[in-house]
Amino acid sequence: MAHTRIIGYIIVIGLILMAILMDGLVLLFVNLPSFMIVLGGTFAIALISGGIFTRRRSLESNQCLWQNITSGFVLTSLLGTSSGVIGMLFKMNDPSQIGSSMAFAILSCFTGLLGLGLISLPMEDHYNKKLTNYTELSMSRIAWFGFPILSFLFVLSSFLIMLTAVAKHLAE
What we know:
Blueprint: H1 2-23, H2 32-49, H3 59-90, H4 98-131, H5 139-171
Helix pairs in contact: 2-3, 2-4, 3-4, 3-5, 4-5
């Protein structure tokens, strides 16, 4: 079972890296403020919830920790994405300035989805399978469906804001 998980990680990470490298613009996917909000915020939420630096870990405490990390990725990604949209709203008068806020919004969403899909949800599922019969609807199942839908709506609103600003600028 562990071998298939490792092979799956290699395939997913390899495909994502290949897709990014095919464009040749790797640095476009590096945005320090979005990393700070998503990764730093998730780590802070895990610290606040407790359980990171405990000496003895039970399966229950590990399960709770990964559920909190999943919640952290969802919350901080939405926070970063909405911060980018707010930045776009403030920059609507100058369409040339909207791009950085839009990149921030989209890369916050991208970072959160990677964190959810590659780190927290697989680990949460691992501990859920060990502890329960895994029939209840956990936070991870809600995150799998809700976060991409909310992210899509934020990205769509970002695009519409940008188009509105560009059309307004061209009309002047």
